[in-house]
Amino acid sequence: MHQLTIAGKAYRSRLLVGTGKYKDFAETRAAIDASGAEIVTVAVRRVNIGQDASQPSLLDAVPPSQFTILPNTAGCYTADDAVRTLRLARELLDGHPLCKLEVLGDPTNLFPNMPETLKAAETLVKEGFEVMVYCADDPIQCKMLEEIGCVAVMPLASLIGSGMGIVNPWNLRLIIDNAKVPIIVDAGVGTASDATIAMELGCDGVLMNTAIAHAKNPVLMASAMKKGIEAGREAYLAGRMVRKYYSADPSSPTTGLIGS
After folding, report:
1. Whose CB among 2, 16, 67, 158 lies 3.0–4.6 Å from 188's, allowing a Cys bridge?
2. Catalytic positions, written as ranges
């Protein structure tokens, strides 16, 4: 099967995972290993990746030599804050250009502020960042982000941390069918079947954090998510049978029966 390619680099895994909300860095690493993820996103404003030399760094547990680190702007509510945060991340990661942009509009529901997101994306792309962008499931604005030059567009399935799954599959299909860059569902996945559905719809990948970190057994859930992603991708590539409402179709042939 074709690998996931983002900004010219190929990845075997189509599952991207976050690093927040775990009890410690050891559990974070164990869950990442169980997930098989190669791209790991880090909230620069919440997790130490070198900002505080006196404290343990996540990069000791999840080193850039083994994973693609994806710094993100969680907690930013303006384009200026997001751009400033990612400039800092690029310095901390020795010029690493790949990043995840998210500009939030409301602290309660964490829905994206799309005007500020578009503004930040334009600035970051001009400055040479390779931008993966969290956004609303709006087909028009997703296309605008692609045309700005984002390397991946990441519409939400439902609100961050809600676990509600994919609430609008029709919009996702519109986005996927019109895209020339990877479409990665970001936010709202609750369990493995949600990830499978996203992949069956034709998404190129799924990014998740809370669904794994807040499971009763995060490491086991990470393993389940890995399998769900793989199953959904295979089902998408296989091409499901056509739904047939109001008519049955016997599984076994009805001609050439023994004794007939």
Report:
1. 158
2. 100
Indicate the pLDDT class of residue 252, thresholds 50, 70 and 90.
Answer: low
Show Cβ contacts of residue 229 under 8 Å, excluding neighbours closer than 6 positions: 13, 14, 15, 195, 196, 199, 205, 206
Residue labelled with tokens 């409301």: 106
Mean predicted confidence (pLDDT) in 127-142: 97
Residue range 183-219, pLDDT digits in tens: 999 988 999 999 999 999 999 999 999 999 999 999 9
Nearest Cα neighbor of 172 from 150, 193, 194 is 194
DSSP per position, the chain = -PPEEETTEEES--EEEE--S-SSHHHHHHHHHHHT-SEEEEETTTS-SSS-TTS--HHHHS-TTTSEEEEE-TT--SHHHHHHHHHHHHHHTTT--EEEE--BS-TTT--B-HHHHHHHHHHHHHTT-EEEEEE-S-HHHHHHHHHHT-SEEEE-SSSTT-----S-HHHHHHHHHT-SS-BEEES---SHHHHHHHHHTT-SEEEESHHHHTSSSHHHHHHHHHHHHHHHHHHHHH-PPPP-TT----SS-SSS-TT-
Look up residue 5 and give its amino acid. T
Partnered with residue 6 across adjacent β-strands are: 9
Q: How far apart are CA 247 and CA 250, in angstroms?
A: 10
pLDDT in tens, 49-107: 888 888 888 898 999 999 999 999 999 999 999 999 999 999 999 899 999 999 999 98
Q: Which of 208, 198, 218, 233 is nearest to 15 (CA)?
A: 208
